[in-house]
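WARN retry 2 of 3 for item q-0093 after timeout on previous attempt; input resubmitted unchanged.
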Amino acid sequence: MDQVHVYNGMPAKHLGTEGWAKPWSGPNGGACVEVMRLHDGRVALRQSTDPDGPALIYTHHEIERFIQGAKAGAADFLLTRPDPNLTSSAGTAPERRAA
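OK item q-0093 returned
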């Protein structure tokens, strides 16, 4: 892997099969995010159900800030489901179809 040019969106299979971990695995049937620490300190993420799909590559600083923000609650809004009764300025889906 040392000679592979690592870039954001590269096929995860090019990073190899060793070193991937599932730190957030839960009772979701195995569909989770896998992570790998790269030799230069960056972190690769991939979807476990698509191990040959794209890898997202983040710097140590980016991952550190993300984790700090998540711990502080900055991403808690992602845990709530949108209210289907709320309309946007574009209206509800049936209203948009009728227009």
